[in-house]
Amino acid sequence: DTGVSQNPRHKITKRGQNVTFRCDPISEHNRLYWYRQTLGQGPEFLTYFQNEAQLEKSRLLSDRFSAERPKGSFSTLEIQRTEQGDSAMYLCASSFSGRATEAFFGQGTRLTVV
Amino acid sequence: DAKTTQPPSMDCAEGRAANLPCNHSTISGNEYVYWYRQIHSQGPQYIIHGLKNNETNEMASLIITEDRKSSTLILPHATLRDTAVYYCIVRVGRDDKIIFGKGTRLHILP
Q1: Which of A12, A30, B53, B65 has the greatest CB tally within 10 Å of its CB?
Q2: CB atoms near residue B68 (< 10 Å)
Q3: What is the tens place of the pLDDT at every residue in A49-105?
Q4: If we measure between CA atoms, which residue out of A15, A55, A68, A105 comes closest to residue B45?
Q5: Cβ of A41 and B102 within 8 Å?
């Protein structure tokens, strides 16, 4: 069990470009969450999956954001036409619904839009 | 929106007990109190949770008032590695999404 893995750890992109982040949850965890965190604030919930089904999306997740978890294992978060306001830490967490385990978070991907 | 209120920052001397308060006056009967912490540049880390009774594990103790409107997280012997932002969260259970507030920034002083 190597924990929740997120790649890349850092991404610098120009405004208007598309970016994609990947999250590999803990093996067998069926729930996967995405959060966004800006400086000085707590993480903000974006969306979550149970297996491959996306069960909830925050209003923070604009049309430029899309998340997938095609086979119920790893997940990707894509941001299209990035804006400077998208600069943040993007965190992924996973858990196993129905088991006595808590959610584990990854180290995050820090996005800087220039 | 977060359902808890925490002081923005606190100081504690190394080796002393750190007591972090949290108000959750609108907590529902089926909601648990959870604590997470976030060390700089890392993802949040689960610490402890409870419903009504006080709880203790290897990291901390959680004291919940009888009316459940407030709680205190206790780190019994704070070390420099406990410097972090501590988040108090109420949620229905493990399957409920975690809604973070701004937390308390705890500084452990040498």
Answers
A1: A30
A2: 18
A3: 999 999 999 998 889 999 999 988 999 999 999 999 999 999 999 998 876 668 899
A4: A105
A5: yes
